[in-house]
């Protein structure tokens, strides 16, 4: 119990009516004891403890308000800067994707059954557009080519152009990224290259190239039995003989022999080599040249394996180079998001 709670009669030597000095009080010029103030005193109720708000506390409170206001401004500036830069990052990503799609790798949607079971309807494949800059097209390659003006393949998916500009944009984007058919690009396997003689059939009903029968384990079951005689056909210079893996329903070079080129397709119409299935996930696989074509291809060039290895590595190298600006853009977005979250946490 403090002295303030004692009865005045028990206060000892203190005189009634005088004020007992508080600890720390200094006497004034008249010798009386008076408290020395550095701020405002606050009393709450009778006998309440005296509270003093100092100038330092007032300054600290003002400083805290200023810091809170500064944090709020910083958070607003970060959020505003992020939303301003987001469209730029999206444009950069789209431009980069367009450049890669145009000159390096493009995804394609498989709309028909002509390449079953190697490729199924709905598969998405990646096509290497640079491989034939470092090596020639080889027998057994699965290639995508533009058939405009040369092939009008039956049962091809026809894409009606949307009348709505917004729908046109989304259709175009889907075609560029392989989620929608283009209606003009076809995919087939190379059977004969310029100068080859292609014909059918030997005594086992196999297709022959330069007099040699080709074993084709990739064919749709029962396809070999459906082969009908054709040829011999000599593939013209600068052109290719192409056939589907589902021979019974594939409308390929065999059925275009009355068209310009005698069923063959110009090499300049080839978009690139399909080298991997990327969708659906349970069908991810590569599309290598079957071993049955190795003897024929090895006769063309002893350097082919080296060139093919370089061609396979080229998209990876370009992809790694393209990943740098994408990575930087991603880091920038991440920093902006973290900054906005940090501003929220600071509150």
UniProtKB/TrEMBL annotation:
Gene3D superfamilies: Umud Fragment, subunit A
Residue intervals passing through the bilayer: 88-109
Catalytic activity: Cleavage of hydrophobic, N-terminal signal or leader sequences from secreted and periplasmic proteins
Membrane topology: Single-pass type II membrane protein
EC number: 3.4.21.89
Keyword set, alphabetical order: Hydrolase, Membrane, Protease, Transmembrane, Transmembrane helix
InterPro entries: LexA/Signal_pep-like_sf (IPR036286), Pept_S26A_signal_pept_1 (IPR000223), Peptidase_S26 (IPR019533)
Top-level taxon of the source organism: Bacteria
A Pfam match: Peptidase_S26
Main localisation: membrane
GO MF, any single term: signal peptidase activity
Annotated family: Belongs to the peptidase S26 family.
Protein name as catalogued: Signal peptidase I
Native organism: Nocardiopsis sediminis
Classification of source organism: Bacteria, Bacillati, Actinomycetota, Actinomycetes, Streptosporangiales
């Amino acid at each position: 119990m403090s002295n303030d709670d004692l009865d005045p009669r028990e206060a000892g030597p203190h005189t009634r009516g005088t004020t007992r000095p508080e600890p720390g009080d200094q006497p004034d010029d008249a010798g009386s004891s008076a408290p020395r103030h550095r701020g405002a005193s606050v009393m709450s109720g009778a006998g309440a403890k005296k509270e003093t708000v100092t100038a330092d506390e007032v300054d600290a409170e003002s400083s805290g308000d200023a810091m809170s206001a500064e944090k709020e401004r910083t958070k607003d500036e970060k959020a505003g800067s992020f939303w301003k830069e987001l469209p730029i990052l999206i444009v950069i990503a789209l431009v980069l994707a367009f450049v890669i799609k145009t000159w390096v790798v493009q995804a394609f949607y498989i709309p028909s059954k002509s390449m079953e079971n190697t490729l199924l309807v709905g598969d998405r494949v990646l096509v290497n557009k640079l491989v034939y800059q470092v090596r020639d097209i080889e027998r057994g390659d699965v290639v995508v080519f533009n058939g405009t003006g040369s092939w009008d393949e039956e049962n091809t998916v026809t894409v009606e152009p949307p009348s709505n500009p917004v729908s046109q944009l989304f259709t175009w984007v889907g075609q560029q990224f392989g989620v929608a058919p283009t209606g003009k690009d076809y995919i087939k396997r190379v059977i004969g290259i310029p100068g080859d003689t292609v014909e059918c059939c030997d005594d086992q009903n196999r297709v022959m190239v330069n007099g040699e029968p080709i074993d084709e384990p990739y064919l749709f079951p029962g396809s070999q039995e459906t082969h009908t005689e054709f040829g011999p056909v000599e593939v013209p210079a600068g052109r290719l003989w192409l056939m589907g893996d589902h021979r019974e329903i594939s409308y390929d070079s065999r059925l275009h022999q009355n068209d310009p080129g005698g069923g063959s397709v110009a090499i300049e119409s080839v978009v690139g080599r399909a080298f991997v299935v990327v969708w659906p996930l349970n069908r991810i696989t590569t599309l290598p040249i079957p071993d049955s074509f190795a003897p024929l291809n090895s006769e063309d060039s002893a350097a082919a394996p080296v060139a093919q290895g370089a061609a396979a590595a080229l998209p990876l190298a370009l992809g790694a180079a393209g990943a740098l600006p994408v990575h930087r853009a991603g880091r920038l977005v991440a920093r902006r998001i973290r900054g906005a979250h940090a501003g929220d946490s600071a509150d």
